[in-house]
Every structure is written in C-alpha cells, then in structure tokens.
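Explain this one:

_____
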Amino acid sequence: MWVLWLAIACSASIALIFRRSETAGMNRYAVTSANYLTACLISILLLALRPPPLGLPPAPPADLVEISSALGASDARLSPSGSFAWALLVGLGAGVVFFLAFVYYQISVREHGVSLAGAFAKLGILVPMSLSLLLWQEYPRAIQWLGIALAIASILLVHWPPGRNWRAAIRVALLLLFLFGGTAEFSNKIFQKYALQDYKLVFLLVTFFIAFLCSSSVAVARRRPVRVAELLTGVAVGIPNLFSSFFLIAALETIPAAVAFPAYGAGTIVIIHLVGVTAFRERPTRRERLAILLTVVALILINL
C-alpha cells in the first residue's frame, strides 16, 4: 500500500511545485524543459537497468504492415519489433500533447488556484473513456455512467455563468488542461491497447524527448534568461512526473485496479486541495468546493 501512497504523493507534488513556480514568476518554459529533460534521463537510466526483450531487428515496412493489421483487429498484440515501432509512432504525437498539457497545467494553477487545476487535470480521464467508447465500444457500467454524469456536472458547475455572463464564466485554461491532459491519458491507453508492456519505457522516453524539444524550442524563441532556480524547479517536477506512473504501475502488481485507481485520482485531488488551503491560503468559492467534491466522487465511481 505504501507504493500507492508514493504514487499519490508524486502526482500531487507536481501541481504544488507548479503553484510555487507560478507564484514566483518563473520562466514557465524553462521549468517545463528541465522537467522533461530530467524525465528523459531517468527513462534512459531505467532502460539501461531493465532493457526490453530483444526480438527481430526493426523492419519499418513490415512493422507498419503489422501495425495496420493490428489496428483493424479487435484484440491484437504487436510483436517486439512492432511494439518498438508503435512506441515511436505514438510517442511522437504524445510528446506534443504532454507538453501542451503541462503548459496549461501551470497556467491553470496561476489563474484558478491549485485545487481547481488539480481537479481538472484528473477529470481528463473522461477523454480516453469517451474515445474508447467510440473506437472500441468499451461501454461503461451503470455505476461508471453515474460517475461520468457527476464529472460533467462538476465541469458545468465551475463554468456556470454568474449573472448570465458566459464570457466571464468560461475558464479557457481549465478547459484546455482538461482536453490536453485527457488526450495525453489517451496516448497511454492507445499504446497499452496494442503494444507489449515491456516497451512502455521506450514509449515514455520518446514522449518526454519530443515534449522536451517542443518546450526548449519555445524557451529559446522567447529569449528569456534562464535562472538556476528555474532549472532546479524543473528537475523537482521531472522526478515525480516520471515516478507517479512508475509507482502506480508497481502498486497495481499487488493492489486491485478497482482500489488503486480511485485512490490515486481522489487522493491526489484531496491532498492538493488541503495543501492549497492550508499552505497557500487559497479560498475556493462554495461552488468550486462542491465541484471538487463532485470530482472526487466521480473519479471513484468511474474507476470502479
């Protein structure tokens, strides 16, 4: 159980570190670049310690044919060579989405507080659920439909127009965080759907490297000076960014998914909210507190 608590602590610490960096007015893209470079280096180290099993040498034409056949099948699993190619292909797109999700995570923390940002980051689970329903007919159970309804209600509650002023009510950063964060979650799902799990570190390395290229390119283009504190903050984010998934996967080896996933999502939101209120003196409105509570309940029901 302690491994699951480590996963929750890592997940919550990402938002809390962003809260500190945004308050201090740090260079957002320098922080993000250092974060992804750190995650890349840790991924390389873990791959060196536990390399994936060797199969046939990569053969791009044959691998693409195999991937095309697998995508047309209902329950196909790629070979080691095909899984390696799939990790490269999915990682290329995932890196861009991961970068955008982290940027809007930071913007949301600054504009709307760490509690709401953390809640909307976890609500992104609705995106892979919806796409799985459309692509693979993975229908939720009755209790999960209830969770989805509560999640949608929490989103509407946050954006309900005060005085019928929709323009003032729409919080673009939160909605983009929800969209990009959910799409990033879906990239994990679509990799897992077809590839051998031995190649997940390859997928993560490609994803983090592409995200690093995106972030560092923007940082260079903006020509803002980079401070040591910003690089150290990025390193501090990069470590829990990688190990939140690492510890969650380890927890799933001994804890049923029906327990681990609800605890992971809800526990992260609760910790972020408590620290935001006590340490950062954030004061969410009554409506926002209700939306956070609905999000916690929704995540528990969705993951059952």
